[in-house]
Structure formats: C-alpha cells, structure tokens
C-alpha cells in the first residue's frame, strides 16, 4: 500500500466506466439496442403487473409473488441501463465514488431480493401441489407479506454488508472499471489495498444467498415432481408442470449467471465474459421473465389481452 493511501482512505473521487464497447462507431447501435431492451422490459413487466392488479382471478399467492418479481425486474434494469444510456449520449464515462457505491448497493439489494423471492415462489408451488388441502391457510395473505418482508430484510443486510466492506478499501491508483456498471469483482481489481477479506466475504455471502435458496428450491421441486407423477390425469400433469416449468426456467437463468459472476475466489482480470454475464443479469433476465411467464400461462395471456383491450374479467 502506498503511504498516501494510508492517510486518505479513498484518494479517487470518481471512476471511469469503460462500457460495453469502446469503439465510437458501435456506440449508437448499442444505445438503440439497450434503449429498446429497456422499454420492452419495463413495458412487459408493467403489463404483467397491471394484469395481476386488475384481474380478480389473478389475486392468488402465485401471482402476488409474480407481481413482486415484475417490480424487481423493473428496478434491476433501471439501476443500470438508464445511467449507461446517459453516458453514451453525453460521452462522459465518469461516475462519482458515491454514485458508484449507490448503484452497487441497489443492484445487490434487488438481486438479493430476487434470490429469496424465487425461493418463496418455489415454496408456494410446493404447498399448492403437495399440500392442497391446507394451502389456503398455510399461504394466507399474512404469510405472503411476511415472506416478502423477510426477503427484503435479508437482501438489505447483504447489500449493506458488501457496501460497507467496500468502503474499507483504498482506491488510489487506476480508476478505469472494465464494465458498464459498478460491481464488486471489477472494483476489487482497482483497490491498492488487500481485497482478500472482501473476496472471501463475497464468496461466503454468495454461497449463503445462492446455496441456501437453491437447496430449498431443489428439495421443493423433488417433492413437487413426485406428487405430479402420482397424478393420473394427463391434463392435470401437464397443467402442474406448466406452472412449475416457467419458474424453473427463471431460476436456472438467474442462478446460473449469478454463480458464475460472484462465486469466484481471486482477483481475475475483467473480461468480455463478465460484461456478457452483466448483460444477462441486468437486461436479458428481466426482459425474458414476462415472456416466460406469459407464453406458458393461459391465465396471464387472457388477462393481458383484456387489459390491453380495456376489458375486465367477470370472474
């Protein structure tokens, strides 16, 4: 560590985000593509949310959690993409140190909430299929709210822990972040002090945040699969697998990219792979979720059409 770093914990006042592409000729195309993706994602998730709010038949626990997921998807892409679009328009790539920390905090808050919400959705499917007689009492409105509140509390604790831990590092050298948003692995590489404890904390918290929900989700779906296979009706099996298939697809996309990005030890050089994973986490996943849930769900499709046409269900 350099002597001046000891006296001034954070010598750098801002970072430079290099973005997805450095070639100026490609930046207009990137702007158009990401603006389109942002509008599609926000529009799709708002449509899902509107359908759930106005349709009485969708006022069930499964769609309550799906509505919360839509809010998270809008938040996740809004934390990263508008700021990137602004930098492409202004040609200014600098981000203040405090702004970088804020973006990192909110991104990890929303991503952490996603982890626990997907677990709550798996628990809901387990109760609906494996414990249908007690489902209405075990998944009553108060239980739904408690699950969401606990998820927010755990996600907030995780995000705050990482943000506070990052402020203990010294940044006194290069300030170029090889990414299009501020994230922990890339910021670790710029620190002029040891990041070993921070990396262990990231690995450990990621293991808890991803490992525990994954175990719960897998165990829930083992029970669900066993229960579905006992259903004699082919139509009944198809309907049960359809409602679970959408959720499992989202789980695989979310956890697959998250594990690759955060459960790594050692400071590896930032690469285009990290940017690709970042695009998946912040843009592709939130954009695909409305499509995944609507394409395989006739109730959501019908409700979306009624919302778009200004009609309401009589149910």
TrEMBL record:
Annotated keywords: Cell membrane, G-protein coupled receptor, Membrane, Olfaction, Receptor, Sensory transduction, Transducer, Transmembrane, Transmembrane helix
Domain of life (superkingdom): Eukaryota
Topology in membrane: Multi-pass membrane protein
InterPro entries the UniProt entry points to: GPCR_Rhodpsn, GPCR_Rhodpsn_7TM, Olfact_rcpt
Transmembrane annotation, as ranges: 29-54, 63-85, 105-126, 146-165, 200-229
PROSITE patterns cross-referenced by the UniProt entry: G_PROTEIN_RECEP_F1_1 (PS00237), G_PROTEIN_RECEP_F1_2 (PS50262)
Pfam families, sorted: 7tm_4
Cellular compartments annotated: Cell membrane; Membrane
Keyword Cell inner membrane: no
Domain G-protein coupled receptors family 1 profile: 44-293
Functional note: Putative odorant or sperm cell receptor.
Family under the similarity heading: Belongs to the G-protein coupled receptor 1 family.
PANTHER family, alphabetized: OLFACTORY RECEPTOR
Protein name per UniProt: Olfactory receptor
